[in-house]
Write a structure and sequence with these properties.
Length: 255
C-alpha cells in the first residue's frame, strides 16, 4: 500500500536532481594560452611549445601536396611575431585571424628564414594587411629571382628582433638560411637548416651547399649553445640530437 507514494517521491527526487544539474553553470573554457593545439583551418594548425611560443604547421597542395612545413608564432607584449608564413596566403590569413581573434595577440611583424615558398608563400596576405615582413637582403634577391613573394624589410646577420635573436650561421639548406632563438624559453627555430629525427636524407638540395653546411652548424652551436627545444623546418621538434642527426646525414651525403 506504500508503493505509489514511494514511487512519487523517487520521481520527485530525480526531477530535482536533473533540474539542479541542468542549471549548474558549465566550467569556463581553458584560455588559449594554456591549450596545447588548435586546428585553425584545413591544412593549418598551431601547437603550444612554451609559454608565448607556438609552432604553426601548414600543409602544401599542388606539386608539394601533403608536405607540412613548420614556423613559429611568438607572443610579444600585447602583439605577436610570425616566423615564416606558411605555403600560401590562405595559410597566413588563418594564422593572422587566430592570433588576433582567439589569442588576442595580433601579428605586428613577420620574418622569413629563407627564400623558398614554404617560408615566403604567405607574404602577400601580410603585405595586404600592412604587416612588415623582414628577411635578409640575400633572401629578398633570391625570392625575387625565383618568383616567390619578397620580404620588403631587411634583417641583419645577427640581431635581436623583439624577444627573438636572429642569426645567419652560413650556407646550408640554402645560401641564405637563418636560425631564430626565443631567448626566454630556449626554443630554437632551425627551419630547413636542421632536419627532424625521422629524416632519412637532407631533403631538397636544389639550393643547398652541402660542403659548407657542417661548418655552419658548428657556428650555430657556438652562437646558441643551450637550446631546450629545436624546431626543424618540417616534422617534429626535438632536442640537440637533431643537430647531431643533421651532421650524420651530411657525413653520409659526403661519402
Amino acid at each position: 500500500m506504500h508503493s505509489r507514494p514511494m514511487t512519487v517521491l523517487r520521481a520527485s527526487a530525480l526531477l530535482l536532481l536533473f533540474t539542479a544539474c541542468a542549471s549548474t553553470p558549465s566550467a569556463p573554457s581553458t584560455p588559449p594560452q594554456l591549450q596545447e593545439q588548435f586546428v585553425l583551418a584545413k591544412g593549418v594548425r598551431v601547437r603550444r611549445l612554451a609559454p608565448g611560443v607556438w609552432m604553426h604547421i601548414t600543409e602544401a597542395g599542388g606539386d608539394w601536396a601533403g608536405v607540412t612545413a613548420n614556423g613559429l608564432l611568438v607572443e610579444d607584449g600585447d602583439a605577436s611575431i610570425l616566423v615564416d608564413t606558411g605555403w600560401t596566403p590562405e595559410h597566413s590569413k588563418a594564422l593572422l585571424t587566430w592570433a588576433r581573434d582567439t589569442l588576442h595577440h595580433p601579428v605586428r611583424a613577420a620574418l622569413v628564414t629563407h627564400f623558398h615558398v614554404d617560408r615566403t608563400g604567405g607574404i602577400p596576405t601580410l603585405d595586404a594587411e600592412g604587416i612588415p615582413v623582414h628577411g635578409r637582403e640575400d633572401t629578398a634577391l633570391r625570392a625575387g629571382k625565383q618568383g616567390n613573394p619578397v620580404p620588403q624589410q631587411r634583417l641583419g646577420d645577427a640581431q635581436d628582433f623583439g624577444p627573438l635573436s636572429v642569426f645567419f650561421p652560413g650556407a646550408g639548406h640554402s645560401p641564405d638560411n637563418i636560425v631564430v632563438m626565443h631567448r626566454a624559453s630556449g626554443v630554437l627555430y632551425g627551419g630547413c637548416f636542421i632536419k627532424d629525427a625521422s629524416a632519412k636524407g637532407l631533403g631538397n638540395l636544389e639550393d643547398a651547399d652541402v660542403s659548407a653546411w657542417p661548418g655552419s652548424i658548428q657556428r650555430e652551436r657556438e652562437h646558441f649553445p643551450n637550446p631546450r627545444i629545436i624546431v626543424p623546418g618540417h616534422e617534429q621538434p626535438g632536442g640537440t640530437k637533431l643537430l647531431d642527426h643533421t651532421e650524420a646525414l651530411l657525413k653520409k651525403a659526403s661519402h
